[in-house]
Amino acid sequence: MKETITLQDILKIVRENFLFIISFTLFAALVTAFISIFVLKPTYEAETQILVNQKNIEQPHLGVQQVETDLRLINTYNIIITSSAILSKVINKLDLDVTPEVLMDQITVSSANNSQVVNINVVDKQAGLAVEIANTIADVFQEEIQVLMTVDNVNILSVAQLDKEPVPIAPNKTLYIVAASFIGFVLSAALIIIIESLDTTIKTEQDIEELIGLPIIGLISQISDAHNKSTRIKSRKTRRGS
Question: What subcellular locations does the record give (predicted)?
Answer without folding.
Answer: Cell membrane
